[in-house]
């Protein structure tokens, strides 16, 4: 993971989350249609939209050094954001338990199996086939932003991780001002406003057309 996504860049993902969560909250707060109980039960979806959009924008403006594409789920229920690094792929998931893999779905199960490396000559001789690039996850707190990790799913378990980073939300985050001083801040209000507007536009285009 460190080779594909250096540790010096980990705080970028944490900063994207610090913008995305309040942007989703503000969008919900300002739209009565999103305050009915059925919409409240799907708050996580709006957080997911905001995070995906934040990551997409960070890649497009060069803040995140990778490529991306929108991949369809195994069943035709929508798309997920897949990040492409030179020798690995990654996806993003909300989880309630940072120590457990996200719920099993077919695309994620296939990606998990890609982390299985053939060890030893016996495995090569038995025809073990690694079907694609290794896969890792960006996971973050469900509903409330208390944690974020980079993790490698175990190929031998549907629930455990082979490796998991420290909590990215506990990394220092600084924003350089025009001068030499450095300001410690949770999020940029203008960035939150722009992200909220983009989410709102996307919502109207896809659900109110």
Q: Could you characterize the architecture of this molecule?
A:
36% of the residues lie in helices and 20% in strands. It has six helices and eight strands. The strands form two sheets. The chain has a six-stranded mixed beta sheet with strand order 1-2-3-4-5-6, covered by helices on one side. Strands 7-8 form a two-stranded antiparallel ribbon. The longest helix has 21 residues, at 10-30. Mean pLDDT is 78; it is low at 117-130 and 174-187.
- Give the low-pLDDT segments: 117-130, 174-187
The percentage of residues in β strands lies in: 15-25%
Shape: globular
Helix content: 25-40%
Number of helices: 6
Task: Compute the separation of the termini in Å.
Answer: 41 Å
Total number of strands: 8
Instruction: Give the integer mean of the pLDDT values.
Output: 78
Helix- and strand-based class? alpha+beta
The run of helices and strands is: HHHEEEHHEEEEEH
Radius of gyration: 18 Å
Strand order of the largest sheet: 1-2-3-4-5-6
Q: Give a short account of the largest sheet.
A: 6 strands, mixed
